[in-house]
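WARN no homologs supplied; continuing
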Amino acid sequence: MTRIAVDVGNSRISSAVIDGGKILDIFHNDTLLPKDAADAILSGARAHKAKVAIASVVPEAADIILKRLLDAGEEAVQITTQSQPLITGTYKTLGIDRVASISAAINIFGKGRGAFVIDCGTATTFTAASAAGEFQGGWITLGLGRTLRALNEHTDQLPDLTGKVRSVNQLSPGHRTDDAILSGTLLAHIGIIKQWIATAKAVLPGEHTTVITGGYANQIAPFLTDIEHLAPTLTLLGIDLIAKAEAVRADRD
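OK structure emitted
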């Protein structure tokens, strides 16, 4: 079955056409423009004769997309942390994006192990689950881009370097303010993630594979030796897996 998995994030809406666990196409829209995203998803659903599964951390945007699809007669569902059957022991406000990512990490990369997922996006998050799919906890901090913006917004003289965040790839001490901010922010995130992984390995039982995803993953991953898998589309693949599992459960019921 072909499905369009939709991840409505804080900054952008990512959509992937998936068939048999393989991504055939992927496209992105600004979260502030959910009507544009809805039209693009509708067009994709009709072109591929695909069902749609939506996971969202921005309810207002998801509502607009879902209504547009259903009004157009397309088959669309919204998956939630409460509805999904793959990860147990979750709490009410745990983001469905994190649940989708950890589900995909275990099922695609786990090979009998649990998983640690580091998601480097608007926020930088760490999510852990056992091989049996039991949620083991996580951590959250401000993401790479938003850290740069916060430095500008909460100081009098530091510049806004958000637009340069993807150009930084070195960790040497800066000899200019811009360089010091860019390399310092990147190095701080690398240090945070290293400490998260080390702490998780020390306190959580079982073996885990470590996967990194998110918009800044390609930039951060080269500096992390503990990362086994770089998977920028992990959340979208997890949405597809959860939608499949929910459909199987519905057929049984």
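The chain has a mean pLDDT of 95.
OK
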